[in-house]
Structure to design on (348 residues):
């Protein structure tokens, strides 16, 4: 049978990449098609190669082409990663860091925002993406609440231009979703919106893209983690046993064999309280030891210990993360944390 590239391309439109919610042709994942007699070789670009989707699509391509052109066809599928090809909308982003926790309200957004600022202060180009649909707080913390991202044309497609404040690029699910509507959003809608923030956006060249992930271990977290080449996760906990138990569960999910996303370490937030008039005192309000226990058990480092300080909350609510302040012990605790995270990334 005489087959053309056009025939093969047409047939491959039946192969769907679920994370992208479209077929692999329209997602521009088909990089190359070579045909020699009954031999067809298809090169397919994936966001990352250690993803179960690679195997699924591999099989689906073989089956689709054989069904269409006959069992005698010899199909060779070559998966390559976006990083190998130096392409993809996120090709300019060197390190995606996901800030996660098992439990809500432990200070994930505070840590993500201050991590972004501290990384920026040490000379990196930085973006922050708020993926927390139920409580998008990054726009408030960066003082861009109520603003909307701009749009531009990229390769014939209209894409978002992140907002910018303090030299940091910012996008948030909160730009799309009104808080009172959040409960009505289904998982697939959230994934769609998240994918747009990641790939239909002009992040440009970044050393770090920090993602404030939704708390918990549900489907959404899993999809997000599977679809992108996340360099590592930072776990946030408070020292309470009940918080570390939830963080343990979240850590296990990200560590699952199929995801294999490195856990960079744990940040202990609200580690202790120091009264402003007694700077030498540390009160361990939420207890002591549970974080170290968890770090030991998971065999990962404690990346930082952030005190409970009224200024952290005030600065967050006021739209300028506390790490923007001059050197104070609190700012220093975030700068040390960011330095440790950079060190862990360098060791990967
Ligand atoms: N170290 C700290 N000292 C004082 N206040 C803090 C500290 N960390 C966080 N907070 C305050 O606690 C509240 C919850 O923090 P944050 O929003 O960062 O938590 P979260 O884990 O992102 O919560 P959610 O699960 O709702 O997204 C905020 O008002 C924040 O300003
Ligand atoms: Mg939050």
């Amino acid at each position: 049978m005489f087959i053309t590239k056009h025939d093969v391309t047409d047939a491959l439109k039946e192969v769907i990449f679920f994370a992208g919610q479209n077929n692999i042709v329209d997602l521009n994942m088909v990089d190359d098609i070579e045909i020699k007699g009954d031999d067809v070789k298809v090169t397919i670009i994936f966001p990352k190669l250690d993803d179960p989707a690679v195997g699924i699509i591999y099989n689906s391509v073989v089956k689709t082409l054989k069904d269409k052109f006959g069992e005698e066809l010899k199909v060779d599928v070559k998966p390559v990663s976006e990083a190998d090809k130096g392409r993809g909308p996120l090709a300019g982003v060197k390190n995606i860091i996901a800030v996660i926790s098992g439990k809500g309200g432990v200070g994930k957004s505070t840590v993500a925002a201050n991590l972004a600022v501290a990384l920026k202060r040490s000379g990196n180009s930085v973006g922050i993406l708020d993926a927390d649909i139920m409580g998008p707080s990054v726009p408030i913390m960066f003082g861009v609440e109520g603003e909307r991202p701009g749009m531009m044309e990229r390769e014939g497609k209209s894409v978002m231009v992140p907002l910018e404040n303090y030299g940091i690029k910012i996008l948030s699910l909160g730009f799309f979703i009104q808080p009172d509507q959040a409960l009505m959003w289904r998982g697939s809608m959230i994934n769609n919106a998240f994918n747009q923030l990641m790939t239909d956006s002009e992040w440009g060249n970044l050393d770090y893209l920090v993602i404030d992930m939704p708390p918990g271990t549900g489907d959404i977290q899993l999809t997000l983690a599977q679809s992108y080449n996340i360099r590592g996760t930072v776990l946030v906990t408070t020292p309470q046993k009940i918080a570390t138990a939830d963080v343990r569960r979240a850590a296990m999910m990200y560590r699952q064999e199929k995801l294999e996303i490195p856990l960079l370490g744990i940040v202990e937030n609200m580690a202790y309280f120091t009264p402003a008039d007694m700077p030498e005192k540390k009160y361990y309000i939420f207890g002591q030891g549970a974080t170290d226990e968890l770090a030991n058990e998971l065999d990962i480092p404690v990346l930082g210990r952030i005190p409970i300080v009224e200024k952290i909350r005030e600065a967050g609510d006021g739209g300028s993360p506390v790490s923007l302040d001059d050197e104070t012990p609190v700012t220093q605790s975030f700068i040390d944390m960011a330095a440790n995270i950079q060190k862990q990334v360098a060791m990967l």
Summary: The domain at 93-347 is CATH 3.40.50.300 (Rossmann fold). The radius of gyration is 22 Å. The first strand starts at residue 16 and ends at 17.
